[in-house]
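Hello again,

I reread your note about wanting to compare the complex against the isolated chains. To keep things tidy I'm splitting this into two emails, and this first one only covers the full assembly. Below are the input lines as submitted, including protein chains and any nucleic acid or small-molecule components. They are followed by the predicted structure of everything together. The single-chain runs will come separately.
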Amino acid sequence: MAIPFDYETLRLIWWLLLGVLLIGFTLTDGYDLGVATLLPFIARTDEERRLAINSIAPTWEGHQVWLILGGGAIFAAWPFVYAISFSGFYLAIFLVLAALILRPVAFKYRSKHDDSAWRSRWDWALFVGGFVPALVFGVAVGNVLLGAPFRLNSDLRAFYEGSLLGLFSPFTLLTGLLSVAMVVLHGAGWLALKAEDGVVMDRARRWGKIAALLVIALFAIGGVMVATMNIGYRLEGELDPAGPSNPLWATSVPAAGAWLDNYGRHPWMLLAPILGFLGPILAYAAIAGRKQSLLFIGSALAVVGIISTVGLSMFPFILPSSIDPHSSLMVWNASSSHLTLWIMLVVTLIFLPIVLAYTAWVLKILFGRVTLDDVRTNPDFY
Amino acid sequence: MDLAVVELSRLQFALTAMYHFLFVPLTLGLSFMLVIMESIYVITEREIWRTITRFWARLFGINFVLGVATGLTMEFEFGMNWSYYSHYVGDIFGAPLAIEGLMAFFLEATFVGLMFFGWDKLSKQLHLLVTFLVALGSNLSALWILIANGWMQNPVGSRFNPDTMRMEVVDFYSVLFNPVAQAKFVHTVSAGYVTASVFVLGISAWYLLRGRYTALAKRSLTVAAAFGLASSLSVVVLGDESGYALTDHQKMKLAAIEAMWHTEKAPAGLTLFGLPSVKDRETRYEIKIPYVLGLISTRSLTGQVQGINELVLHAQERIESGKLAYGALEDLKADRTNATARATFEANRSNLGYAMLLKRYVPDPRNATADQVMQAAWDTVPNVPVTFWLFRLMAGLGFFFIGFFALAFYYATVRRFDVKWFLRAAVIIMPLPWLAAEMGWVLAEYGRQPWAIEGVLPTFLGASSLTVAQVWTTIAAFTLLYSALAFIEVRLMLAAIRKGPDSKRGRDLASGVEPTDAGYAPLPAE
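Full-complex prediction:
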């Protein structure tokens, strides 16, 4: 059977789908991470904490699948990216894993004992399970923008020359904090939809305001750093967009400010950073004007805008190498084969709409605000 | 390659995978048992069945959450510790993992929340549908992961592309309908059903011995006995199907399991007992049943089962051919247009993996001596005594479960719930299905060595370029974290079992006492 799309188009589609997955994960599980990070700050008593926890408890499990699917889809469509980033950022990924392993257990086991020390320990586990992944993901994205210290040998075996501490620099700390601020804002946005208006919500609004301002400031500073510091890579010479996936055949060079090139070539791309600013501004205004649903829309727009900005700025790079001009991973040289991309596209087109449909149905069934009264009386609650 | 990193990575993968598989079989089986119990509730409308379903669902929940948590590790670990493997076969191996997420994980994870939180928000029928979707999702995930694993055992539908230095898919249908994968899937889920049946039966027996919640225990025991009998039969029959799949696709593994050094005249006998000696390459004190192995594994009287010595000679030939492929590949790296090299490569392509076995002894396989080739050929033999004994223990347990559930089914049918010795035995044997399941995995994966992908990629070449310190760090941290979680999980499980159903009304019903606030509707939440 002939494949109806050419290789170049499929690579482009899968680059877009990579973005859809990251955004899908952050839009859904992002607010779970955000609420967990907010937990110690917005909820003091056990009932308040259970209010916050139960606003995300029935659905976080489905949301986390975006991350699992993200892992699987990168493995299937961008095997180089999966192989090099997961082994290169080895200990950082482990930190995320450990935090995310704590999270489900904390949800499920926290309320099984009526003991305040037990519960407080699990609440801290939830906080760690929210804060650490958000921070590390942000730091990782910062490192992707800076380029990672890896090289490929002629067998395409990857060697990584960095360390865990080497992942932290002023720029990557900034992206890490931006990521935390973004999910915290989104968590506040979710609570505005899901939790009853009361003391928890009041505190969530206060933190949401701070988070919105931080998102605006950090995103702006990040932009300035990308424009003025020695950040960015350019492709040198020709690269066949339909050629075999072999990074050794392309040449990339560090080029200050190169991450802004695309906006000059395609001004429509500026829409992404504009959304990245409009989102948090809208969220801030919504908190000030007590417009609950607008807050969530604002935080969601921030997520879409900021993640899209990263992707569009780097295109066609996915993971540049900072030490070897012939190892950078790009849309045109790091994908699976033509056939695999096609099969995976067909599977995605069939199943993603089904997933979205039943997720929406479940959200509809569970629709309605969680109240302190529910927490006291509903025995199904955590 | 740093061999210490390889060995540590194998250790970590084995630990995390085996730990993950403590929770998975129970999820696979208990989810379907919940469907059965809830169906009875929906059909009979008797409230006790709702109580029963909700009680087992609580235990299911405690177990499920650790399955999810530790499954995340598995999804990331290929990239973390097996970077070259991920590059080398990601084009094929990644697809089933991604489809697993899309088709199965979303289903089970999205509906499991509704299963627990939706009792009062959904009609009876709709809630049953939700429970069914959770069961379907978890079983579908087993299907996809075993398609991935089946491909490691029998890498069909793919070939090496010298331009991208990796395996690429050429025929996705044969990856999907890989006979090894199909056989493994049914064998594995059946093992999960047996595990859940033993679990439910054991706890019910404990209640009966204590005289607690007897109404719940008798009904649960009956469901478990019937489900367990069907599943234990299917595990053994379909396990035999796995054996049949080995005959064609993993001859060496089959020979190792049988500790069969020499090819016998067909049909070969099945070794019941023996003492395999790797040093002397023979098996002493064999007790054999004539004809049976030949019959099981070739389904004929004339089909031959090859012995280890002959398979090693065969491997030696493949290594020699692989050296040519390797040399041609090196020439192609230097000059992509070299037509002679490409032709040589094409002719010997399927043996490239065999040449890579030599990398353990010599950096460039082209320079390998005849001795080194011989050594590498003998490397293709997995650990014979271990596979030999694991298989016998696992299969023995399989037959034991058939007998055990046949007895349970008999007692349940004649309504004898007071046979003390049997109830005690049911409690004592509770760990056995886990033991059998873990042994099955070790047999399948250890028996695949030295290959990560049979005949394609040796395990020692698949690892990431990490340091020993890095891998030790994560092994230590995983061990600590996982031990703590296991400890907490077992405590919560025991507490939930001791407590029984959640509400006073549920406990009354489960004890066979008419609740004081009798009446069907409205049902109070438990």
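For quick reference: Chain B touches chain A through 76 residues (CB under 8 Å).

B.
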